[in-house]
């Protein structure tokens, strides 16, 4: 079996990579929303984050690798959507740098169209992306929901909410709608919240 990163945000970053085109399929704020939601989901699944009145609250003390628990503890109660939007672009850089340090990806700085600075990401071993995709695919089509690995279930929930077509093309999201809802229910409040954030962003862009 191919080794994959331990953290859910790192896994979601790699799942947003299009191995066929050898480039990131998602970037900017939308990927940041997915990564923030992944970090919140990881904390929630581990019991380090709870929920009161539909808002996240600190749970059992533990590691806070991305500083989200400290942010939430220092703030008045705010919605899941608030914490998904906050520092979303910075989260992309944080996870990208983490994956570079871990030897999972290479990053080359360049200028798009010769003007705009951007980062060209290359996954060092495409089998890692394939392994992660296989876990998500099995969660979508395989064993009963209660027996699915919690990170694979969360990957499907977050990919659906974040419109990651590398994992779930639109046709698959429609075909497996019921199963996705069941996996989302297992994964906590962050995935539904990221869907609301992205829908609001799309509506604002269209209006």
Automatic annotation (TrEMBL):
Membrane topology according to the record: Peripheral membrane protein
Subcellular localization, as worded in the UniProt entry: Golgi apparatus membrane
One protein family per Pfam: GPP34
Principal subcellular localisation of the protein: Golgi
GO CC annotation: cytoplasm; endomembrane system
Protein name, per record: GPP34 family phosphoprotein
Species name: Actinomadura rubrisoli
Gene Ontology MF terms in the entry: phosphatidylinositol-4-phosphate binding
Keyword annotations of the record: Golgi apparatus, Lipid-binding, Membrane
